[in-house]
Amino acid sequence: MELRHLRHFVALAEEEHFGRAAERVFVVQQALSNSIRNLEDEVGVPLVLRTTRRVQLTPAGREFLIGARETLAQAAQTVERARRAARGEVGHLTVGFVSGLAFGGLPEIVRSFRELYPNVSVDLRELTAQEQEAALRGGQIELGLMLLPVRDPGFDSRPLWRQPLVAALPAGHPLARKRRLKVGDLAGERFVFFPRHLRATYFDQVMRWCAASGFTPNVVQEAIEIPTLLSLVAAGIGVFLPIEFFSRLALPGVVYRPLEDAPVVEIVAVWRREAGRDPTLRAFLTVAREALEKGEDK
């Protein structure tokens, strides 16, 4: 039994006339008549009573009409679900992110994506860049959001956002009186920073940048999380060089100053190369880029 047979039968039942039903489904009348006979042969009972003026359904035909309509509706829903999946409008996506993005970037992305794709389930997992790389290889996440690109031939990546570094200073620090700083101004300062093994790429970039200005940061205290590091700054233990969007964390005792010669850090999306055709992943990337660009315009 084919769906076209059901469509022909429903059209005939509703039009009660072979000629009008044939026109409705865009076939010749003889083809429609043959389709109904084939359907009756398969069902094994008469479904219609043929008269000179109109067509009437048998009791079996009336019952069959109910099921035919339900089947066609279900088929239409199934087709639409497949089309929506192909457009990335339904499904599931597991996204890893480095902790700092929770304070800038990630909320905008997730909010915009859920507004546009409410039927996609997004599972967020806070992971370091190294943990994201391992999770991508192991299939635990489909997409990673991290700072700086990953150099791996099995991954593809796309820059989403570019952010300069800023100086986070204790509120009473003499340098806080200036509106803008140069990195060389920090040469004699004590620093707080991440342990290198947690954010090696970021750590090394900052160290190279400072070395180009003639000094190596004197890191006197390490911490894992951004809020902890900023709390150490507020306590006067040292200065910190976060990415600009962390300046949204208005902690008492911390001031932020732009750096004239600051390097720009990329926030990138990373995924396994073979997953690049997934429509849900592509939709998320598009929304992420647009959401972050809107944030920059504000």
UniProtKB/TrEMBL annotation:
PROSITE patterns: HTH_LYSR. InterPro entries: LysR_HTH_N (IPR000847), LysR_subst-bd (IPR005119), WH-like_DNA-bd_sf (IPR036388), WH_DNA-bd_sf (IPR036390). Residues 1-58 form the HTH lysR-type domain. The keyword Transcription applies. Gene3D superfamilies: Periplasmic binding protein-like II, Winged helix-like DNA-binding domain superfamily/Winged helix DNA-binding domain. It holds the Pfam family LysR_substrate. Keywords: DNA-binding, Transcription, Transcription regulation. PANTHER family: HCA OPERON TRANSCRIPTIONAL ACTIVATOR HCAR, TRANSCRIPTIONAL DUAL REGULATOR HCAR-RELATED. Belongs to the LysR transcriptional regulatory family. This is LysR family transcriptional regulator. It comes from Deinococcus aetherius.
